[in-house]
Specification:
CATH topology of the largest domain: Immunoglobulin-like
CATH class of the largest domain: Mainly Beta
Order of helices and strands: HEEEEEEEE
Shape: elongated
Largest sheet: 4 strands, mixed
Distance between the termini: 55 Å
Helix content: 10-25%
Number of helices: 1
Strand order of the largest sheet: 5-2-1-7
Length: 148
């Protein structure tokens, strides 16, 4: 009876190791597939205007020729203040790019958070229609929250 318990325990342990290993492999495969990351890197006040600087990185092996995101800026009270398009232009494979956007008549301290609402345009040379959205990661280095 003791031997059956040890055999069963070994089979269960091996099965768990295989399942965990498959999960790790899937996570690595997903990372290897690439994606786009957008980070709000800095904000600069210019009177009643705000300059937002983003760091964008394309982790795919293929260049993205054009990436345009529908973006919502929320005001200090949490209300929708502006719905706009941010054109990140081309994002070469494996090369970080800084893109800056000036928002006139909106002070930086009046922006409480930013929503990347969706992809307006994404063009690549490869058959990767969802390259700008699949695997999109969003981050902020400043007090303005960025969500998506």
């Amino acid at each position: 009876m003791q031997t059956n318990f040890h055999s069963t325990a070994r089979v269960v342990l091996l099965a768990l190791l295989l399942i965990l290993g498959a999960g790790l492999a899937r996570a690595e495969d997903t990372k290897a597939l690439g994606g786009v990351s957008i980070e709000l890197s800095s904000v600069q006040e210019n009177g009643q205007s705000c300059m937002l600087s983003f760091l964008a990185e394309n982790a795919y092996e293929t260049d993205i020729d054009s990436a345009v995101y529908e973006t919502v800026l929320f005001g200090a009270e949490g209300q929708v203040a502006l719905l706009t398009l941010l054109d990140f232009a081309s994002l070469p494979a494996g090369k970080p790019r800084v893109r800056q956007f000036q928002f006139n008549d909106m002070a930086c301290d009046q922006i409480s958070r930013i929503l990347i609402n969706g992809v307006q345009e994404c063009a690549t040379q490869a058959d990767m229609a969802d390259a700008c959205e699949a695997g999109l990661t969003i981050n902020s280095r400043v007090k303005i929250e960025v969500i998506g």
